[in-house]
Amino acid sequence: MAELPESEPRIYSVGKVACGILTHVLCVVFTVLITVLAKPGTSLFSWHPFLMTLAFSLFMTEAVLLFSPHCSPIRKLSHKTKGRVHWILQCLCASCATLGLASIFYNKHLNGKPHFASWHGLVGLGTLCVVGVQSLAALPLLYHSLAKGWSLAKLKRYHAASGLVTYLLGSVSLLLGICSVWFTGTVGGYTWYLAALCPALSTLVIMSQVSNTYMAKKRLVS
């Protein structure tokens, strides 16, 4: 028999709202920081950190936060509308990441440097591939006629689980990026640690949101 979810203590709800708002702020601050440091347009390489940060820090984070019951900017809209906006943001994420990869690939080609010779490059390439697959796999959730023979509830769970893995890969790629020679040579001291905290803290909030939502649904049907 399904059980009604127990009401949360007020301080717990306030904490979730605060964490959600903080995540919105962190992903914007981190994106602005990288934009200022990279100065997109000043060189071919400058587009790589800018576009990759725009993809994995801003678009991907905001795409997931759309479904947050505590801090979604479109909380009052229907779940179907949220799903479409989520898919659009993910497509923007994939587009920016593809352009970011193209810029660094061509830059290395011009300078005669090896491609994907670091963990940052390999994880970034893998993340982009997973983002593309994840976006295509989400189509049956938008157009239910494509999900013939599949349970939509199971597809949503699979999508949430694989989406969390995708987000983790994106965050690892960002963290490896701020360990690169370019970033460590541009900033230092406390700025580097503060920059590293942005994707790290955002990841913890996203993990909590996805896992808590899944656990809540499991309790409702148990």
List key phrases describing it:
222 residues, mainly alpha, Four Helix Bundle (Hemerythrin (Met), subunit A), 0% strand, disordered N terminus
Walk me through what this model shows.
With 222 residues, this protein is mainly α. It has one domain (17-220): Up-down Bundle (Four Helix Bundle (Hemerythrin (Met), subunit A)), CATH 1.20.120. The protein contains eight helices and no strands. The chain has helices at residues 10-38, 47-65, 79-111, 119-137, 139-142, 152-177, 181-186, 190-221. Helix 1 packs antiparallel against helix 2 (47-65) and helix 6 packs antiparallel against helix 8. The longest helix has 33 residues, at 79-111. It is globular and about 50 Å long. The chain starts with 9 loop residues before the first helix and ends with a helix.
